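Fold this sequence, please.
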Amino acid sequence: MDLDLAGRAYYVTGISRGVGQAVAAALLSEGAFVAGCARGGAALERISDELPADARGRLLATVADVTDAAHLDQAVNQAAARFGRLDGLVANAGAGTTGGVLATPSAIWDGQFAVKIHSVLNLVRPALPTLRQSDAGRVVIINGVTAHAPEADMAAVSASRAAVASLARSLAVELAPEKILVNTISLGAIMTGRQRDRHRASGSGQPFQEWCDTEARRRGVLVGRPGTPAEVAPAVLLLLSPLSSYITGSSIDVSGGASART
């Protein structure tokens, strides 16, 4: 299926690893132009070095902090100037943390809402003037299934993801008259570097893959294993595509069938 992404331009935050990196690679393979940011310059250089030569000229990767409005404003405007257009955005900020409601310090609560909520607003606001000029303006927000069914040991993450779900719906309503479509991808257990961090923190004696599979089953994942970033990317690309012209205000679970909805 031709998703009609070739020649279009997209901005992806958190591009240096995990889901963001997989989405950027998939867009580039479709012939799109991709700009993105991350906090680490070395990781961005590695991504560029690993790309095929014909894709390197279609990637603009810069260092920026998504919680800093001025940083992201500059990065987005640089991308719009470089490519002469922006057709879609992928808000992909992560940085989860563990802890119950009362055990989680106020600073962690503030940080989670900053990285989840403000990272979306800091991306959308500067991009809107250019996005309005596209014939297929799209915003895809990467969220989590804990937005609908909070996990007790991830209280701040779950609450901030619920806020993101509300924000996404409000954005969809507000931007629909301008023909800009806003949707959410709600992730379940995805095997990224953060899963390795959680494995180390758990103190489990299980090998990493075995621990991941056990955790996936505990969280009600029907397929019995965690997903991969490469399994997330196709759903994101569909929502970015002009073919998704009748989908907005929606949330698509990429969770292996985890029973997270309440």
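The chain has one domain: 9-188+227-254. The CA atoms of residues 66 and 119 lie 5 Å apart.
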